Amino acid sequence: MVEGGRACVKGLRVLVTDPLDDLFLEILRSKGLEVDYRPGLSRGELLAVIDRYDALVVRSRTRVDREVLAKGRSLKVVARAGVGLDNIDVDAARELGIRVVNAPAAATQSVAELTIALLIAASRRLAESWELARRRVWKKVMGFELYGKTLAVIGFGRIGRRVAEIARAIGMKVLAYDVVDLTGYAEKMGVKFSSNMYDVISKADAITLHVPLTPSTYHLLSWEEFKLMKQGVILVNTSRGAVVDSEALLWALDAGVVGAAALDVLEHEPPKTEAEKKLLYHPRVIVTTHIGASTVEAQRRVALETARKLIEALAASNNC
Ligand code: NAD
């Protein structure tokens, strides 16, 4: 539970603009904070009211850019209830003296489990078989085992390493790529680390993405990268949609380079571009609705960790 700090933060006003666990709201209110829970608040409404609040709490939907931060004249803290900070202008917040906190480890296990579920769903063509069953067509669909196959993990951070551990337990060979040299970590897990992404993706039977969305990872996988991959490779993306160039992926699927893709994330959610809409209905693509962190356990951890960090940051900004 979140201890202490009541007197210090009592009466401060917190705006929550995305859906959050009741536990989170309960903790904040128990500390005497005045919480306005307004999930789904429009951008216009947010800009109109943000100057009344000391803290803003969001998930991935609300875009907290320089304009929002500048209008938040009393803002002391922005809390992201989750991992990725790509919807928050962290540089602008720093310049304006607004602290940014998040819950980086809370969803690791949930996202890793979903990644493995999608990997198996793609390799065994579960969605196709399910669709046939619904049409009462009792036909076999031929898949393949993951055992003995090579998985490339792109981004060997918290989630990437957990996915690698589970994949190793299934009997996969795992190659990992990261911008940071994580050879030591990899060796301990029986994973082969490379600092060359092309080396890793060209050898893989399946590729899974676990990088944050930054200017350097935008369209990290595009035409050039798909052209290097093995014919029939499986692609799983539970990181951020824009890490993959949707048009290039569509080409790679139709050219048979990508045998199947399983995507928990798209550049636009719901899909907006023609390529994204085609991916959604592609027979060899599974799309889920950004559910990586949507488990009871992850949301509880997110609630606890975000509440604790938000209260600590508000207390620190009040010098107590
Ligand atoms: P992390 O920070 O622990 O790991 C990210 C890794 O990516 C780091 O090791 C970093 O060095 C590496 N990296 C950064 N830029 C890179 C680049 N250009 N090339 C290669 N590697 C690079 O983060 P994490 O907790 O493992 O989360 C990974 C991502 O998963 C998050 O950033 C978020 O976008 C995504 N995520 C998605 C969901 C979901 O609901 N689907 C939930 C949580 C997190």
Write up what this structure looks like.
With 320 residues, the protein is α/β, with parallel strands linked by helices. The protein has 2 domains: 6-106 and 296-317, Rossmann fold (3-Layer(aba) Sandwich); 108-287, NAD(P)-binding Rossmann-like Domain (Rossmann fold, 3-Layer(aba) Sandwich), CATH 3.40.50. The protein is 39% helix and 16% strand. The protein is built from 14 helices and 12 strands. The chain has a 7-stranded parallel beta sheet. The chain has a 5-stranded parallel beta sheet with strand order 2-1-3-4-5. Strand 9 (206-209), helix 11 and strand 10 form a beta-alpha-beta unit. Helix 2 (22-30) runs parallel beside helix 14 (296-317), helix 6 crosses helix 8 and helix 12 (246-254) packs across helix 13. It is elongated, with a radius of gyration of 21 Å. It starts with 5 loop residues before the first helix and ends with a helix. The model has no long low-confidence stretch (mean pLDDT 96). It binds nicotinamide-adenine-dinucleotide. Nicotinamide-adenine-dinucleotide binds next to helix 6 and helix 8.
